[in-house]
Amino acid sequence: MKRRSLDPETPVESAELSLYEALLSLKNAGEMGAFMCDLCTPAELEVLVDRWRVVPYLLEGVSYREIHERTAVSITTIGRVARYLNQGSGGYLAAAARAARRLSLATKKAKA
């Protein structure tokens, strides 16, 4: 995390909460994509996508080596994601569960 030598006018906690509120205010994947492209550099966005891309494989119990072969994501990144899946704050699991439910509903609607 960055260390700042000056005290910012807006406390970090308040700015962080403001970011979360901004993310929650977006209505769809298109809006989120536009916001993320504005917020992140291409390299930062690539890192986030790589981390998210390995989550389903880890939840399925696929080995790190096989995940690497399928995605080209580094073993180090895969290990980092696995650590946070197991010992983190539950964010990956909550997002993965909601994404799976959304996909399941979309699949049911398509079959109907």
Task: Briefly characterize the structure.
By secondary structure, this protein is mainly alpha-helical. Helices cover 77% and strands 0% of the residues.
How would you describe this protein?
The structure is a single chain. The protein is 77% helix and 0% strand. The chain is mostly helical and 112 residues long. Helix 3 (42-60) packs across helix 5 (75-87). It contains 6 helices and no strands. The protein is globular and about 50 Å long. 7% of the residues are buried.
List the topology elements:
Layout: H1 12-25, H2 29-39, H3 42-60, H4 64-71, H5 75-87, H6 91-111
Helix pairs in contact: 3-5
Form type: globular
User: Which secondary-structure class do the elements indicate?
Assistant: mainly alpha
Please identify the oligomeric state: single chain
- Name the average pLDDT: 91
Q: SSE string, helix = H, strand = E?
A: HHHHHH
Distance between the termini: 48 Å
Q: If helices are DSSP runs of H or I spanning 4 or more residues, what is the number of helices? A: 6
Residues in helix, % = over 70%
Largest sheet: none
Uncertain segments: none
Number of distinct beta strands: 0
What value does the Rg take, in angstroms?
Answer: 17 Å
